Each structure stands twice: as structure tokens, then as C-alpha cells.
Give the backbone structure.
Amino acid sequence: MSGVQSTTGDVDVDLGQLFASLLRDWVRLVVVAVVVTALAFVFASMATRYYKAETRLLIETRESVFTRPDGNTETDRSNLDEEGVTSQVELVGSTDILKQVAKKLDLASRPEFDPAAKMSTLSRLLVLVGLKSDPNELPPEERVLKAFRENLNVYRVEKSRVIVIQFSSQDPKLAADVPNAIADVYMEFQRGAKLESNTEATDWLKPEIADLTKRVKDAESKVAAFRAESDLLVGQNNSVLSTQQLSELSSELSRVRANRSAAEANAQGVRQALKQGGSIDAMPEVLSSGLIQRLRERQVQLRNDIAELSTTLLPNHPRIKALNSQLADLNAQIRSQAEKVLTGLVNEASTASLREQQLVADLNTLKVESARASEQEVELRALEREAAAQRALLESYLTRYREATSRQDRNYLPVDARVFSRANVPSEPYFPKVVPIVGAAFVGSLLLMAIVTLLQELFSGRAMRPAAGSRVVPVAQVAMPARRAASLPDEALPQAWHSEEEPVEALAHHDLGEVPAYANDQAEPVAATAGHVGIGIEFAAEKLITSGAARAIFVSPEGDEAAATAVLVAREVADVGLRVLLLDLTASGAASRPMLDGGRYPGITNLLAAEAQFTDVIRADHYSDCDVMPIGTADPARAMRAADRLPIIMQSLTTAYDLVVVECGPADADEIHRLVGDGTEVLVSFLEHDEQVADAAAGLRAGGYEDVILVTPIGHDLPTTPQPTRSAA
């Protein structure tokens, strides 16, 4: 409707009021905390003691370069990586190892590991009613293993190769024996696995070695037979004889050709010297002749003699002539001898040429033989490779077989793990820890009760206050309007409203402080009646339902009798099936007394004064499905000090109900301002049309509520306050 201002937002939490509830309820908080702490102490004192011990394993390679035949310790590196250590953790906690430990320590005879051994009466009762599984349904071995695993914890220390075996038990000695036994069984299990692997290796290698020995022998025999058949005899440097001969013959041919070339060159030089009459003394071949050297010596001697005699004798002297004659003979002999040397050189060159021709013929023959040998050598090398591969495999198998048999004979099979910390018998239980349990119970219960108290205070609305900067207008619906209170007898007022500190007249005009002002939601207006004609109860209820109104604010200028209109409309809407609550804000409780058989009950004033909660002040109409919140019995002055919480209460009620009907009595536009909100309809109830009703409607329209609806209960029996027929709920 136009002119309606929302008052359901702009609220803050009053922290002072919120935490003041802790001081008000401190006795309850302390009592609950002490009770819970006492229960925790009893539980910790009576609980079964559990002891815990642990054994630590280190996964590492136990081999060394001195114990491995090949001197290599990298073979088992795969067991040392993260996946390998995690696999060992799973192996330590495997069923096979746990079964061996359980049998070794006879855990089946202990009631701790067999829940079916000594079942309490409560446990048997739970089994009978089906709330607990019957342990006898499982075989005894599975029951033991199940209890075993519940107390066992095997894990790997992060970023290490350390495995921790933890076990808890009621018996401290058993708590230490179990992890030590698990470690021992694990070591034996690993050693047995290596022994089994070693035995399987020797059993497999033995026939393989025998078969390989035969195959190697056959392969080498094929190589020798093929070499003999192909005439591929091996010479020096592991090469075929024909190839080696070809190489040697090639070298000899090169040497012969060199000698021939040298002989021909020397003969040509001597021939040129003799032909041209030149000196042959510089020829190395001539000088190398012994006869020529002696003739040259004799020639030198004769020339010396001639030179000596020429000093005393004339050239025609017989002696000098004789010497000259001998010298000429020597020159002829030297030349003749040089020609013989030339002949020898020619013969030597000719012989070398013949040798060269023979070597070339032999070389061509060996080339053909070498080509044939090379072709056959390809197949020979294939046979040799096969024989070498078989031989290498045989040697490898022999090495591994000797290693396996030596380890088996010496019983040396080191496990790739060692126990570096064995469990000791614990002296103190790890559960229960009395002091931490009792302390946690006290702190936790105290904190939980504090949270519950704060939530109760918050949800009740007592800890809410309007936001800073909100606008406020006074309302007199909480207290009785001054002009109406002055005209009523004292017995019509609730007893709590008679206060010596503040009279009723002052109470009606009490400044209630600021309340939030909200924007108009511009709900679709319901057309006001023309002139001064009002609508009936049914039409009013229909308009409220069809318009989807959340709040219906009734103003009754004629007083308590006209307040019955709000009751009739609320009951009419409730009969349709909607959830409806009537909030009585009249000074005398005229709207709620007919619905509750006239009793005095806690109501809105008690809620505002923080003397009650919503569940304490909302009651059911004795004659319909409508709920009602009476005016209450609290001190009005105290209630008005908390009147700024009224918009919050209205918002809570509109959230819980489809329609909230508020009977305000004779109020004006300013006095109902804080009651309006989204989906609010303002209605004026009257019994007889007079100037007072017209002025009230005009005043509401002038105050911003343009679509005021006039409602009259004419044609209906007005509800009255009957004699109580049953006690108030």
C-alpha cells in the first residue's frame, strides 16, 4: 500500500546485551561444565588401560662388494625407493604374517582378542535386538585377526625408509611382544622368500647349463668342420691363410718391382757414363766393385810414381814410358770392368723383371682364392658368432649357478632390512590420559554451553538493536493511549501497569527512542471503500488473502468493542488454512482475552522486557486454528525501554506466519509507524459510523497510509470474554 514504510531491516547485534546473557546464566554454565567434567573423570578413571609399544625397521641393502660375486650392489635398489618401502609396509601387515604371530603368541586364548569369549549381558542384549552383530558368526581365527588389526598400526616414516610397527594392548608385556614378534616373523619371511628364490634358481639353472654345454660343443664343432672343409686355415693374427699369403705376396711383389726399377736405373746411368766417356768414379755401382777399387788404387800409385820420376827424368825416358804404358792398361781394365758391372746390372734388372712377372701370376691366383675364402668366411663368422653367444650365455649361467650354490651351501641369505629399535615393555598407559580428558571435557562443555546461551539470546531477539542513524517515531500501542487510559476504570487495566514511578498518562507519551525507517515496498494497494461505507468480515479476509498481505494493522477508534473485528478477521483467514497470529497491543487486552478465556498470560510486554521467549508468549486460540500473543503481564515501563526491538519481533513473526494481525486499539499514524513493513494493510474497524471513525481514517490517510480499509463486524456475533472452561495452557 502507498505510504507504508518498511521497518524490518537496519538492525545490529547488541554485543553488550548478547554477552550479558553469559553473566546472567553463569550458574547454569558452571553447573553443566562441572557435571560433564565429573562424568569425564569417572569415565577416565574406570576406562580400561591400554599400553602401546613400537618396533622400527630400516629397509636397506645388506649385501656388500665382498659378498656378491659380481661386486654389484645396485641389483636390489628397487626395494629402496618409495614404492618399494610402501610395499614392505603392506607386507609387514599382511594376513600371513599376522596369522603366524597370533599363533606364536597364542592370542586366541586371550579375551581381548576374542569378543565372543566373554560377552557382557548388555552386549548379548544388543545382539538379540539386532543392534549389534553377533561375533560368533565369524570363525575364531577371523575374530582374532579383526581385533589384532584394530590394535595394530604399521606405517612408514615420511621421507625415510623406516617402518614403524605400533601395537596397543591391555597387557604391557604383550604390547611389546607383538611388534617384536611381527618384526622377527617378517625377517624370517623375507629370508625364506630369498631361500626359496635361490633354490628355484639353482633348480632351473642346472638343466639349462647342461643343455647349453651341449649346444656350445655342437656350435664349436660346426665351426671347426666348416673351416676344414672350406680350407680356411687360420694363420697369424687370426686371419685365413690365403688372405695372409695374399698380403705377403703383395709385399714381395712391391719389393721386387722396386729392385727392378733400381737395377734398370743404375744400368742406364752406367751405360750413359760409358757411352759419353765420362768419369765412372762417381757411380756407386762401379765403386762398389772390389776389382775396380784395387785397379783404382794401382792407378793412383802409378800416377804418383810418374809424377815423382817426371821431376828427374824426361817424358821419353823408358821408365816413364813403361809407367805410362801400365797406366793406360789400368784405364782399359777399369773401363772393361765397368762394362762388366753394366752387364751385371742389366742382368739383375732382367732377373727382377722375370721375378715380377711370376709374382703377378701368383698374386692373381691368390686373389681368386682369397675371394672364395672371403665368401666362405662370412658363413664361418656366423657360425663363430653363434658359438660365442652360446659360450657367453653358458659362462653367465655358470657364474650365477656357482653364486646360488655357494650361498645355499653357506646358508648366507641376508635380508634387505634390519631391526634397529625393538619395543620395550611400556610402564605407563597411553590411554586414558585423565588430565587431558578432564580438561578437555571442562573447556568443551563450558564453551558449548556458552555458545548455546549466546544463540538463545540471539534468536530470542533480545540481543538486537536498531542500526545507528535510524529514524524513530513514538508508538502508543505498547502502552495504552493516554486518551483511552484516562477514560477506563482502574480495574480494566492490568495490575502490572499501575506503577508509582510513571503514571499511565506519562507512559502513553513516553519517548521510545529511534526505530529503523525502511523504504516503501510499493505493494499493490487494495481499493479503499468509497465515502464512509465499510466492508464486512468476509470481504476483509478475502482482500487480505488475495493481496498476499503479510501484516494487517487494525486501528479501533471506538475502543475495545471494535477490537473484536480483528479477532473475527484473524479467525476467518485461519479457517482458510493459513497460519495466522493475532498480536494484541490494546491497553486492556481486549483482543486476546476472548481468545484465551480471559486469563492473564505472558505476552508482548514480557518478550520486550526479556522475561520470556517466543515459545512462552504464543498461545493457541481456544476457538479456532489462530495463534495469539496477548499483551502480557510485564512492567510497561521496562517493556518500553526495549521497544526498539518491536520491528525485529514483527519481522520474526511475519517470517513464521502467513499473516500477522495486529490490534492497536485507538492509535494514529505515528503510533503504528514501526509496525508496518512489506505487505502491510492498514484497516480501521468500527461498529457505528460517526465523526470519530471518519477522523481516524482521515488521520491515517494524512499520515501516509492512503489505502485505508474500513471494516465493520455488523452481521456477526462479537466475541466476548466467557467464563473459563479450561485451564490456560
